[in-house]
Specification:
alpha+beta, 8 helices, 36% helix, 12% strand, binds flavin mononucleotide
Length: 201
């Protein structure tokens, strides 16, 4: 698929059919994730991959309420694979304390934005784009903050790593399930968000 088509076709998919995802496809998505840029080449990321019904079930049990699932959750739970991209602030503070960077005080005020989350999000985008390239669907979504400790505990995520969200992956079922915000909002045109030379007069 042409790169421009991959980008144009990418949408968050919130319901999947019963077919499993080939292990090689998941591995390609993860390999692409590791080609994301990272500040100082820190690569302070880790990817928890859940690709069995039992593990995926444990993910939803840890991150959602008991009881009847709503449309969103019923759809998302059909995904055969969940990937949890995690970022490590400690890895960046340590990397930038090395000789070639020299931020030995490890002062977080030095960071214009949290590069650990930024880099892991770029890796997550590569997973989303790989899904499209492979003819699959995927959805990045947030893990409720009060559920993060349970998720970390359930899967042995080290204290130094934090989920930045999670990604469902599977064979897409088009035009069904919860459509998400695009049902009520439109994509902004480049002319509305691009400010050439100067933002305002
Ligand atoms: C940081 C982030 C968090 C998101 N959280 C959720 C979420 O919790 N649930 C969900 O269904 N979609 C979530 N989305 C998907 C957005 O709703 C979606 O990207 C947006 O509506 C644009 O639609 P599109 O990605 O299909 O083009 C999230 C996306 C991002 C980038």
């Amino acid at each position: 698929m042409e790169f421009r088509d991959v980008v144009r076709r990418r949408r968050m998919i919130r319901v999947y059919d019963a077919r499993p995802v080939d292990r090689e496809v998941v591995d390609r998505a993860l390999a692409h994730a590791t080609h994301a840029p990272s500040a100082g080449f820190s690569q302070g990321w880790g990817f928890l991959v859940l690709d069995t019904p039992a593990d995926v079930g444990r993910f939803w049990a840890a991150t959602t309420d008991d009881g009847e699932p709503d449309v969103w959750l019923a759809g998302m739970r059909t995904a055969p694979v969940v990937i949890v991209p995690c970022s490590s602030k400690a890895a960046y503070l340590s990397r930038y304390a090395e000789d070639d960077k020299g931020w030995t005080d490890r002062d977080e005020a030095r960071w214009p934005v949290p590069f650990w989350h930024l880099d892991t999000a770029m890796a997550a985008l590569l997973i989303l784009l790989t899904a499209v390239d492979e003819g699959l669907g995927a959805c990045f979504f947030g893990v409720p903050p009060e559920r993060v400790p349970a998720a970390k505990d359930a899967f042995g995520i080290p204290a130094a790593f934090d989920p930045i969200g999670a990604i469902t992956l599977g064979h897409r079922v088009p035009d069904s399930g919860a459509p998400g915000s695009p049902a009520t909002r439109r994509r902004k045109d480049p002319a509305e968000v691009v400010h050439r030379g100067r933002w305002r007069d």
